[in-house]
């Protein structure tokens, strides 16, 4: 349906530079996630793609055509907003059909496309209701329906799940994944939640302070992070970082090991430490240890384990799973 | 805590204060209306008593309706107030939308300039305004009053409305842009309905000074055919003799239209349709 190319996008608001040169190409039919901490410029980038903000410099190409001077409505995109942004004075049917009506499509076609979208999202019973009469999840489905009806080249999602409660979020996530398979549409999705990013995306773009840190599939980012930021951002609980000097290792500045790649033994091991806190999650047990050699270390064990605070334990990182970072935070060969 | 809040004593005290305030505020209005239905002797002998069989009289209303062209005065006041109000709300909302929505060089300076009028009373410029109106041949026309009142009402309208428009969700406006709505449609169909309570507030605050104003009608439009109701009522106040029946009757009648307009707007003050639009 649509490919997207970004060429050296820069955006400044006054003196503050929010985007510092973004290059990216998204293939037809891909589900790409922009993820990063708040203030990293991911939403601004999405708004530049949508045409709601003009880039200070650089070009946006949709299907190979530059759209820098094309208004949002003519770019062939649809956007789903965090706050749903439904028109309060229109019922669900008109909310979904307004874009087509503005484009001057025949009434018959509008009705068919609204019917198809509402059927896909299970909104058939609510077509005559106003947004005020719907629940949060229903409103979000209407917002998604409004995007589907437009049959766009590119779907843009701006943190669409962050206003939903946890259970609904998981459901809607599944629904979005299914939608992407059914529509085989190109989708760009902005979130600050790395779990959403890992579960939904074909590819993830990690942004930090207006720059792209790394682009890759979820497993590439998990297994081969390019730098300290990506290593720390992907994975929960966060990767343990230890200053190499403390461990007497030369060459690297920082060593990193994920909590799930550490083994625990009561008798012997590399690092000796006492338990500070234990979290029992059922499927996992998470240990926080204060070690003599490496400082605070988080360990994730699968299944249930009986540990209590102040237990003395030995932990050993799996050698092949240790990441080494140089002084600039980049991963070393 | 909750016990203290629902205590009957507190509730009674609060009601007593509010009732006292209401009584104080309504008392002069009540006195005017009561006395407008009394004879001259009735008014002066006991101004606070209700009209009885002896003192009841409609002489005031008869004088008002017979003398002068009171319906014309009413009509003039209505035209001036309604048209000025319309202009203030329309142009004020448009300026507020531009200030709240678009980033451009000098935005905050422009906002300050537009709000400056709140601090500087327009009457200071009366002489210049009069010269302007004489030069443009607008003296003794309703247009002159409408122009002056629009200028008088705009600063507060821009100030209040731009604050409210900043609170209208950006996502909603952007959704409209993606659906291909023009900026005018976004303004009229999406934003204006959401700031309706603010518009009503501005309308009430703008309307009352215009309706009650004596200064500009006296200076800019004192001719018989352009007199407003407040100016018209002055014919009964003489230097030596004042026809109190007529003055009170004219004032009672003059309350009615503003009261109706106020009732229309105050409904809007209470409810907005924002609920459910966002989040």
Strand proportion of chain B: under 5%
The low-confidence parts of chain A are none
Number of strands of chain A: 18
Oligomer: heterodimer
Largest sheet of chain A: 6 strands, mixed
Q: Can you tell me the overall shape of chain B?
A: globular
CATH C-level class of the largest domain in chain A is Alpha Beta
The N- to C-terminal Cα distance of chain A equals 39 Å
Task: Report on this structure.
The complex is a heterodimer of chains A (333) and B (279). With 333 residues, chain A is α+β, with helices and mostly antiparallel strands. Chain A is built from 8 helices and 18 strands. Chain A has helices at 42-50, 92-102, 107-120, 136-149, 166-183, 194-200, 218-223, 228-233, and strands spanning 4-13, 16-26, 31-35, 57-62, 65-66, 77-80, 154-158, 186-191, 203-208, 211-216, 240-243, 254-257, 262-265, 271-280, 284-291, 295-302, 312-317, 323-325. In chain A, helix 2 packs across helix 3, helix 2 (92-102) packs parallel to helix 4 (136-149) and helix 3 crosses helix 4 (136-149). The longest helix of chain A has 18 residues, at 166-183. The radius of gyration of chain A is 24 Å and the shape is globular. By secondary structure, chain B is an all-alpha fold. Chain B has 2 domains: 2-57, no CATH class; 72-270, MetI-like (MetI-like fold). In chain B, 71% of the residues lie in helices and 0% in strands. Chain B is built from 14 helices and no strands. Chain B has helices at residues 2-5, 8-36, 40-45, 59-66, 70-101, 107-115, 126-135, 142-166, 170-178, 183-194, 196-212, 215-220, 229-233, 244-270. The radius of gyration of chain B is 24 Å and the shape is globular. The two termini of chain B are 32 Å apart. The interface between A and B is medium-sized, with 34 and 22 residues.
What descriptors fit this protein?
heterodimer, A: about 325 residues, alpha+beta, Rossmann fold, OB fold (Dihydrolipoamide Acetyltransferase, E2P), 8 helices, about 30% strand, B: about 280 residues, mainly alpha, MetI-like fold, 2 domains, 14 helices, globular
């Amino acid at each position: 349906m649509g490919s997207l190319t970004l060429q050296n996008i820069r955006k400044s608001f006054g003196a503050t530079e929010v985007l510092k040169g973004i290059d990216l190409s998204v293939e037809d039919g891909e589900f790409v996630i922009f993820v990063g901490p708040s203030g990293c410029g991911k939403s601004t980038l999405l708004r530049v793609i949508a045409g709601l903000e003009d880039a200070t410099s650089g070009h946006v190409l949709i299907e190979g055509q530059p759209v820098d001077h094309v208004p949002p409505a003519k770019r062939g995109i649809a956007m789903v907003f965090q706050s749903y942004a439904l028109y309060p004075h229109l019922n669900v049917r008109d909310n979904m059909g307004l874009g087509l009506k503005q484009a001057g499509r025949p009434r018959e076609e509008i009705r068919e496309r609204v019917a198809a979208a509402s059927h896909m999202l299970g909104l058939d019973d609510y077509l005559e209701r106003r947004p005020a009469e719907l629940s949060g999840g229903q409103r979000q489905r209407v917002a998604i329906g409004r995007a589907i009806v437009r049959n766009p080249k590119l779907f843009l999602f701006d943190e669409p799940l962050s206003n939903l409660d946890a259970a609904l979020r998981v459901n809607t996530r599944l629904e979005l994944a299914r939608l992407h398979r059914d529509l085989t549409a190109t989708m760009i999705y902005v979130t600050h939640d790395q779990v959403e990013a890992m579960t939904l995306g074909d590819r993830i773009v990690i942004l930090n302070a207006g720059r792209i840190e790394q682009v890759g599939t979820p497993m590439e980012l998990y297994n081969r992070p390019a730098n300290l930021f990506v290593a720390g951002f992907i994975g929960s609980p966060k990767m343990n970082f230890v200053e190499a000097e403390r461990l007497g290792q030369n060459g690297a500045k920082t060593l990193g090991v994920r909590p799930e790649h550490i083994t625990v033994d009561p008798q012997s091991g590399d690092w000796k430490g006492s338990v500070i806190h234990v979290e029992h999650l059922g499927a996992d047990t998470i240990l926080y240890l204060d070690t003599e050699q490496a400082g605070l270390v988080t360990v994730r064990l699968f299944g249930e384990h009986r540990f209590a605070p102040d237990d003395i334990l030995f932990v050993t990182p799996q050698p092949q799973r240790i990441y080494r970072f140089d002084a600039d935070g980049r991963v070393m060969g | 805590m909750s016990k203290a809040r629902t205590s009957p004593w507190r509730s009674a005290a609060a009601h007593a204060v509010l009732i006292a305030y209401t009584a104080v505020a309504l008392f002069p209005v009540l006195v005017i209306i009561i006395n407008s239905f009394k004879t001259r002797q009735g008014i002066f002998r006991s101004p606070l008593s209700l009209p009885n069989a002896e003192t009841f009289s409609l002489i005031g209303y008869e004088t008002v309706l017979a003398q002068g062209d009171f319906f014309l005065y009413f009509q003039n006041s209505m035209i001036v107030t309604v048209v000025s109000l319309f202009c203030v709300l329309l142009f004020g909302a448009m300026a507020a939308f531009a200030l709240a929505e678009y980033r451009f060089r000098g935005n905050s300076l422009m906002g300050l300039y537009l709000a400056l009028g709140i601090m500087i009373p327009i009457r200071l410029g009366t002489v210049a305004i009069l010269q302007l109106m004489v030069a443009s041949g607008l003296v003794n026309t309703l247009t002159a009053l409408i122009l002056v009142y629009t200028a008088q009402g705009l600063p507060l309208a821009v100030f209040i409305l731009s604050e409210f428009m900043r609170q209208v969700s950006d996502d909603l406006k952007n959704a409209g842009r993606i659906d291909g709505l023009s900026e005018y449609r976004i303004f009229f169909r999406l934003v204006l309905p959401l700031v309706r309570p603010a518009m009503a507030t501005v309308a009430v605050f703008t309307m009352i000074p215009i309706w009650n104003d004596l200064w500009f009608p006296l200076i800019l439009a004192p001719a018989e055919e352009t007199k407003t109701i407040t100016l018209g009522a002055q014919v009964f106040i003489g230097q030596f003799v004042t026809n109190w029946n007529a003055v009170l009757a004219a004032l009672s009648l003059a309350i009615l239209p503003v009261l109706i307009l106020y009732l229309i707007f105050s409904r809007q003050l209470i409810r907005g349709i924002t609920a459910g639009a966002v989040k």
